[in-house]
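Protocol step 4 of 5: obtain the predicted structure for the target chain.
Materials: sequence only (see below). No template structures provided, no constraints applied. The aim of this step is simply to have a reference model before the mutagenesis design in step 5. Sequence pasted as it appears in the construct record:
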Amino acid sequence: MSDKPATVYPIVVAEWQRNSREIVRVALDSFNNRETIDIRSWWRDNEDNWRPGRGGLTLAVKHLPALAEGLAGALQRARALGLVEPVTNIKSSTTDKTAAERQRRYRERHRNGGVTA
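Step 4 output (structure tokens):
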């Protein structure tokens, strides 16, 4: 028997605001006695608890190296195409972090033909 303590899942690896109502969470987890990587949107319920959304990606941890390589390639290509800013240039404020959020704010400002602040 091993003296190594049992791993307690889930292990949240990363989390960021997706929009005003959701976060994206990356976590190591276990399902049916298999270790997994789970990438999923989470939303708040009426009691202010985070709940997992239906849409997401859960893969066996053995796929993590291929996923990481694929995401690194996608990031490199997106930067080359000017689709994302380098990390050092991203605003630190919580507003307008996504294109969808910028579009929503633009529509709010220009609704009914008038510009509002």
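Step 4 remarks: Residues 89-94 have pLDDT under 50 and may be disordered. DSSP finds two helices and four strands in the chain.
Proceed to step 5.
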